[in-house]
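Protocol step 4 of 6: structure prediction from sequence.
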Amino acid sequence: MKKLICVLICLCILTAFAQAQVSNEQLKAFAIETVQMMVDTAVQNEIGYSAPYWDVSKLDAYQIRGGALITLTAEQAEALDSFASDDACALAVVAMFINSQFSKEYAELSYVLTQQGGNMGIETGNGMIVWLMYDYHICLCYIHADGSWESALLMSDLNVLRGFSPEYILGRIDTLQMPGGVMLEMFE
């Protein structure tokens, strides 16, 4: 029920801004709401992680330690979309690949908690990624050009948080072999 209420609230908020240019703060707020949906899903379905730091059910979605907004070109959005499969959205596949390098348990948890939705009334040009840093998690929220969206969690830790910078983000994007440079804006 909480998940449905969150989605309805997001729909109301985002529909109101459909005609206007979406601000970075609105995109950030939407990404936070998707994290809260993941937390609510983990709590509701009693999905936990054996190590308390990485237990999503204990994550406070509003305790962001840093973040970034990545504006994609059409070519970059197409490259990211190519990761999607018949069974999973692009970020679910990317998160599974990255998280599996560190913890199979967390990778499976993240995969199950991946959120996605239809047109939320946001038009972003070619697409945008909101990157939110937490102490032990990273949320990636990909808002497609048509307003559909998807969000997934990546495993993180305090060392990653301390090294969080434009160079760090660009290095991670390079591992995905995204064509061309990206437009990147950092925020607190």
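Step 5 (inspection) to follow. The chain has seven helices and six strands.
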